[in-house]
Amino acid sequence: MDMMELLKTRRTYRRFEQKPVSKEILDDILEATRLSSSAANKQPLTYIVINEPAKVDEVFQYTTWAGQLPKELGWPKENEKPVLFIAVIENTDISPAYCDTDAGIALANMTMAAWAHGVGSCIIGACNKVKLSEMFGLKETQKLHSVVAFGYPTHKSTIVDQGEDGSLNYYVDEKVDYYVKKRKLSDTVTYY
Ligand SMILES: Cc1cc2nc3c(=O)[nH]c(=O)nc-3n(C[C@H](O)[C@H](O)[C@H](O)COP(=O)(O)O)c2cc1C
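A: This is the predicted complex of the input protein with flavin mononucleotide.
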C-alpha cells in the first residue's frame, strides 16, 4: 500500500477476528512507536502491552466504545473483541511538558505500523483511568493517557465528506460498516 492509501484506510476499527497478533507484528508496532518524535526529545512516554486473553478481557471491561452509536451497534460483541491492548503512559517525572502531543504522535505511529500489517485499531480515551491505573500499578508520577485496542478488523470503514447538515457524526450501514465524515479540505485550509 502506498502512503496515501495507508492513511485513507487506517481508520478506527471496532470489531475484530479472534486471531492473535504475532510477536513479529507487535514488535514492529512497538518499534514504530519508539521512533516517535518527542518535545525536546525527552521521551516521557512508556507503554504497557496487554496480550494475554484473560488480561485483555480485564482491560476491555474498563473501555467505552463508539459514543455516537447505540451500544448494540458500536460495541464489539463477545466474539468481536480486540485481541491486544497497548496502554500509553505519561511519565511526568521525566517531563510533564507536551506529553499529550507526544502521545498523539506515538498513537499515529503505532496505529499506522499496525495497519501496514493489516491490523486495525481503536484509540480509547474513554476508559476508566482510575481502575486501569490501579490494575497496571502506576506510580503517582505516571498518568494513563489512553489505551489502544488492536485486532484484524471484520468490518470496513470509509471516509465521506461532511454533510450539508454540518454533522460530523460517524454512522453505519445495514452491514454495520462504518462511514466517517471528514471536513472538506476547502473548509480546513487557507493560504496566507
Ligand atoms: C484521542 C482519541 C480518543 C478516542 N477515544 C475513543 C473511545 O474512547 N472510544 C472509541 O470507540 N473511539 C475512540 N476514538 C476513535 C474516534 O472516535 C475516531 O478516531 C473518530 O470517530 C474518527 O474515525 P477515524 O479514526 O476512522 O478517522 C478516539 C480517537 C482519538 C484520536
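The first strand starts at residue 45 and ends at 50. The pocket of flavin mononucleotide is lined by residues 11-12, 14, 64-66, 122-126, 146, 157, 170, 180 (CB under 6 Å).
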